[in-house]
Specification:
It is a single chain. The protein folds into 4 domains: 5-134, Rossmann fold, CATH 3.40.50.2300; 148-313, Rossmann fold (3-Layer(aba) Sandwich), CATH 3.40.50.300; 316-390, Helicase, Ruva Protein, domain 3, CATH 1.10.8.60; 403-460. Helix content is 49%, strand content 12%. The chain has 19 helices and 14 strands. The chain has helices at residues 13-25, 36-45, 62-72, 87-95, 108-139, 149-161, 178-187, 206-214, 231-234, 250-262, 288-294, 299-305, 322-337, 346-354, 360-374, 403-425, 430-437, 441-451, 456-460; strands at 5-9, 29-33, 50-54, 77-82, 100-103, 168-171, 196-200, 239-243, 264-265, 274-275, 279-284, 308-311, 343-344, 379-380. The protein has a 5-stranded parallel sheet with strand order 2-1-3-4-5, sandwiched between helices. Strand 4 (77-82), helix 4 and strand 5 (100-103) form a beta-alpha-beta unit. Mean pLDDT is 85; it is low at 392-397.
Length: 461
């Protein structure tokens, strides 16, 4: 705490020297000024973290020092020195932004208590700023890698919406980086210092979804032994990211729509609404309009959320970005594992370009991480990569089909063949198969049901 810089301002030499000496003995860096004008000159020459100033001085008084300091550097704390007869003025100074006041005559213990209190506040603020910088570095726009035109459109839209308050729907297949887009919007906008709460709607059982999202009161149901705020309250003044939104039941969607319209939540078991100030970002790996047609996404909720849509393209539609992504993941692995950075051969890149990537960027990242871990060499070659990556599924014959249907059938074939291979390699272990594909276990289970795949077949074989 002794690292903070303090400026003591008082026109009485003994008081000024007494305060400075007490603080220096406690390890603080201290300078002093005999007038308000001198204090402002010194303050202009160097940044101080704390200014302790007498209230009554000839010329520029303590209030003048307070206003001058806050105009130049608002984060600097100011403590007012005052006699008993001017405490009312000191209280008025606190309303103008002063941190606290100390009454004369000097009380050494009171002085050090307040200064240490300020030092702790400044240290905590520094830690928060450092954490914020780390979060921005980890989740900022630069973490989205790619030069493909489709990715440039993603960047352009993020840049346009990040400073606004509009709701955004982010679409794209599993593993394309929808949450990265959401985090880039949040951490690049005015709510960056507030909470970012990510909710996987597909992992919320219908029986508990409402109380997880909106909270519950004590006694609202069996086992509710205490009041519990929900995700929306946790995200107050920040952002909530609702991933896989159509997985919520229609009843929960009705309550969600009310939250968006009224900007307040009603905890389960309560009749008292609680105001919330939350920016909502939502995502789905399916076409939202198709979800509305099939009745799994309420039309009114969709139109309430769909102010701006950002579509994140699948990796197979931007294969030219694979070298950039590989370099990015190799660098991440080197930093994470504290080891020399590995490189990949052109033959290795050719293998990666030939794969269909049903798990998209997440699958590619997992492949690179696994290869870095298992390969003894600093040079990754084609032979070091998983075999399935080198053998893309043979596309079915779709001659004569409309382009959109042919594309969908080809995608389904890629998905099915990759899932079958992953299950075969892992002996039907769904968790390990999902990890190898770079997708969530729940996402793999949904895909298995869609393709009529039974994991028990592989365990029995």
């Amino acid at each position: 705490m002794g690292s903070i810089r303090i400026l003591v301002v008082d026109d009485e030499v003994l008081i000024r020297k007494g305060f400075a000496h007490a603080l220096q003995e406690d390890g603080f860096s201290v300078e002093s000024a005999g007038s308000g004008d001198e204090a402002l000159r010194l303050f202009g020459d160097g940044a101080f973290d704390l200014v302790i100033t007498d209230l009554r001085m000839p010329g520029t008084d303590g209030l003048g020092v307070l206003h001058g300091v806050k105009a130049v550097r608002p984060e600097t704390e100011v403590v007012i020195l005052t006699g008993y007869g001017t405490i009312q003025n000191a209280v008025a100074a606190i309303k103008d932004g002063a941190y606290n006041y100390i009454t004369k005559p000097l009380n050494r213990h009171e002085l050090l208590r307040i200064v240490h209190e300020v030092a702790e506040k400044i240290e905590l603020r520094g830690r928060v700023q450092q954490l914020q910088s780390q979060l921005e570095s980890r989740y900022g726009l630069h973490n989205l890698v790619g030069r493909a035109p489709a990715m440039q459109r993603v960047y352009d839209l993020i840049e346009k919406v990040r400073h606004s308050e509009c709701t955004v729907i982010i679409t794209g297949e599993s593993g394309t980086g929808k949450e990265l887009v959401a985090r880039a919007i949040h951490f690049g906008g005015p709510r960056a210092e507030r909470p970012f709460v990510a909710v996987n709607c597909g992992a919320l059982p219908e029986s508990i979804a409402e109380r997880e999202l909106f909270g519950h009161e004590r006694g609202a149901f069996t086992g509710a032994v205490r009041t519990q705020p929900g995700y929306f309250e946790s995200a107050d003044r920040g952002t909530i990211f609702l991933d896989e939104l159509p997985e919520l039941s229609l009843g929960t969607q009705v309550r969600l729509l009310r939250v968006l319209q009224q900007r307040e939540v009603l905890r389960v078991g309560s009749t008292q609404p609680i105001p919330v100030d939350v920016r909502v970002l939502a995502a789905t790996n399916r076409e939202p309009e198709d979800c509305v047609r099939r009745g799994v996404l309420r039309e009114d909720l969709y139109y309430r959320l769909n102010v701006v849509t950002i579509h994140v393209p699948p990796l197979r539609e931007r294969l030219d970005d694979i070298p950039l992504l590989v370099e990015h993941f190799l660098e991440k692995c080197a930093q994470r594992f504290h080891q020399p950075r590995k490189t990949i051969t052109l033959a290795g890149l050719d293998v990666l370009r030939a794969h269909a990537w049903p798990g998209n960027v997440r699958e590619l990242e997992n492949v690179i991480e696994r290869t870095v871990t298992l390969s003894p060499s600093t040079l990754i070659d084609a032979a070091d990569l998983p075999r399935y990556a080198a053998a893309p599924p043979t596309p079915p014959s779709d001659a004569g089909l409309p382009l959109r249907r042919a594309k969908r059938r080809l995608q389904e074939s890629f998905e099915r063949d990759s899932i079958l291979h992953a299950l075969r390699v892992t002996g039907g272990n769904v968790t390990r198969a999902a990890e190898s594909l770079g997708i969530a276990r729940s996402a793999l289970q949904r895909l298995m049901r869609r393709h009529g795949i039974d994991g028990r077949t592989f365990r029995e074989g």
